[in-house]
Design a protein that fits this description.
Layout (H helix, E strand, L loop, with lengths): L6 E6 L2 E6 L12 E3 L10 H6 L6 E3 L22 H4 L3 E6 L6 E5 L4 E7 L2 E7 L1 E5 L5 E7 L12 E9 L5 E11 L3 E2 L6 E8 L5 H14 L3 E5 L8 H4 E8 L2 E8 L16 E4 L20 E3 L11 E6 L4 E2 L2 H8 L7 E4 L13 E3 L7 E6 H7 L6 H23 L7 E2 L10 H5 L6 E5 L2 E2 L15 E2 L8 E3 L2 E5 L5 H13 L4 E5 L2 H4 L5 H4 E5 L11
Parallel strand pairs: 4-12, 14-15, 17-18, 20-22, 24-26, 30-31
Antiparallel strand pairs: 1-2, 3-5, 5-10, 6-9, 6-11, 7-8, 7-10, 11-12, 13-16, 14-32, 16-17, 19-20, 20-21, 22-25, 23-24, 27-28, 29-30
Length: 541
């Protein structure tokens, strides 16, 4: 036995000996085993004992949903609020020496322990508990009261120390195990959609809502319509980011609430198996950065060989150095699963990632990346009669195309993508995502910008799509839903062909003019709650 592995002290008649976690090294009749679900199969078995000494851990859920629908997260009380709440707790088995009479557990104060007694369960403490025993196994159930992240930059890792004592208080053995809070994971657009959201009340979008419902009903995906009196909530993509967290046997939707002093809808989603997180305080941004913290500026890729949970992308205005809200990025970094990277969005009017990058499953389910092709958009467009406009659009297309190529490849003196957590990482998005360049599908988009936005040194700002940006589409369980405002029919045909090439089994075009004339498209207008399951195989070469 390698005694350098994680170990505990077993105490008997004043003599110290060593025992590895979970292996239960015997000292006569004295033995302590802590069993946690390190292999993630939802069971506590001897297989977990063998894995435990190798530095592995079990997941624990931050029990922040509201299974009893009382308007408060379940972790804010010390009760088990019915069967659904019970499923959010994870077990720990403590197998003490036969002479043990007291089990003491000490852990992070964000852990709450329950002692299940038959059909009932009662809280026995937060951060620490003492449990009587008769020398037989003790099973405790655990929840976390908080997610990883927060002001202290907590990584969600919790050491659980266990001591067992005899009737007279003699310490018989001690050991420890590690729990880690289940990470909050953003869901890629390739994951199965369970519900779609849209708002009404400020734009004349009744026809769009009716047409969208006609598409979703046959797919069995409900459309939730929210009436608002604030124009910002009309952009449902920007009012929240819908993520997920799971442990064996339980999962919950995790809604990251909006950052705009205007987002009232996300709080309504607190309920059974649905939590709401406020990962940052809203900040006031002005000028071209006014939309930086809207959630359309935050996306995630499908799994790749390097990042099996996908990798988060967020926008950065490289001219002003303003990025999507840094506190939210820190929260996502602390989940230690999807390693956020930034891309340059400075050349756009709204400056959102979802105008530049989207994902479909590909014909093999491994994921492909959609991007605009401004040069093809220029070629397919009807040339404007005004020579000045024609010349300007040519310049706009050429400059944007060069920036997109630099973003992918990482060449040039000014990086167009990067990893703030790893300055030595690749500076091109292909390398940062670990994606095969052959898995990039381009869609024709005609961009324009004011003449005043064409600056020296090939710089450009304030560009926006002349017709509905097909990258800014909604993907629902095989169906691509794309806007058509000002889009020529020949461009629609090319887009449909490319969508099918990228794995869309059906393509539906809807008139999204209420949104397009307000500088957005279908993806901006909607949001989707998606499955926490990721059936895709990572995209390899």
């Amino acid at each position: 036995m390698n005694l350098a592995k994680r170990s505990c002290r077993c105490v008997r008649t004043g003599v110290l000996v060593w025992a590895c976690l979970g292996w239960g090294v015997a000292l006569g009749e004295q033995r302590l085993v802590i069993r946690i679900d390190v292999d993630g199969d939802g069971l506590l078995t001897a297989a977990d004992d063998e894995a435990a000494p190798h530095g592995r851990f079990a997941r624990v859920m931050a029990n922040r949903d509201d299974d009893d629908a009382d308007g408060l997260p379940d972790a804010d009380d010390d009760r088990v609020n019915g069967p659904r709440d019970r499923a959010d707790l994870v077990p720990i088995d403590i197998i003490p020496p036969a002479t043990a009479r007291v089990v003491r557990v000490t852990a992070d104060e964000r852990l709450r322990f329950f002692d299940r007694d038959g059909a009932d369960a009662r809280s026995v403490g937060t951060g620490r508990c003492d449990v009587a025993c008769d020398g037989g196994p003790v099973r405790l159930w655990v929840e976390s009261t908080a997610w990883a992240g927060g002001p202290a930059r907590w990584d969600g890792s919790c050491d659980v120390a266990v001591e067992v004592s005899a009737d007279d208080g003699t310490l018989l053995a001690q050991d420890h195990a590690t729990l880690r809070v289940a990470p909050v994971l953003l869901r890629p657009s390739t994951a199965a959609a369970r519900e779609v959201f849209i708002a009404t009340g400020r734009y004349d979008n009744a026809a769009f809502v009716a047409a969208l419902r006609q598409v979703l009903d046959p797919l069995g995906v409900p459309l939730t319509v929210y009436a608002t009196d604030d124009w910002r909530e009309m952009w449902m993509q920007d009012t929240m980011e819908i993520a997920a967290a799971s442990v064996p046997g339980s999962s919950m939707r995790v809604v990251l609430a909006g950052l705009r002093h205007a987002d009232r809808f996300p709080g309504r989603l607190l309920g059974p198996d649905s939590a709401v997180v406020e990962p940052a305080a809203a900040r006031s941004l002005r000028g071209g950065d006014a939309w930086a913290d809207w959630y359309g500026n935050l996306e995630v890729s499908p799994p790749t060989p390097t990042y099996p949970a996908g990798r988060i992308l967020f926008g950065r205005n490289t001219t002003t150095a303003t990025s999507f809200h840094p506190d939210v990025i820190a929260f996502l970094e602390d989940q230690a699963s999807q390693a956020p990277v930034w891309i340059d969005t400075s050349w756009l009017l709204i400056k959102h990632v979802d105008e530049i990058i989207a994902f479909l499953p590909g014909d093999d389910g491994k994921g492909v990346m959609l991007m605009p092709d401004p040069l093809e958009g220029l070629r397919l467009a009807d040339p404007p009669a005004d020579a000045a406009v024609r010349s300007r659009r040519e310049t706009v297309a050429t400059r944007i195309a060069a920036r997109l190529d630099a973003m992918l490849a990482g060449h040039g003196p000014s990086p167009r993508a990067g990893d703030d957590a790893d300055r030595e990482a690749a500076s091109g998005l292909v390398g940062l995502l670990g994606i095969d360049p052959k898995r990039i599908v381009r869609l024709p988009v005609l961009f324009d910008a004011p003449a005043s936005a064409l600056h020296d040194h090939e710089a450009i700002t304030d560009a926006e799509a002349v017709w509905s940006n097909p990258v800014n589409a909604l993907f629902v369980n095989g169906t691509v839903i794309c806007g058509t405002s000002a889009m020529p029919e020949r461009v629609q045909r090319v887009c449909e062909e490319r969508f099918r090439e990228a794995g869309g089994t059906a393509v539906v075009f809807l008139d999204d003019s209420p949104y397009h004339r307000n500088h957005g498209n279908v993806h901006c207008a909607t949001n989707a709650s998606r499955s926490d399951e990721t059936p895709q195989t990572p995209a390899g070469p």
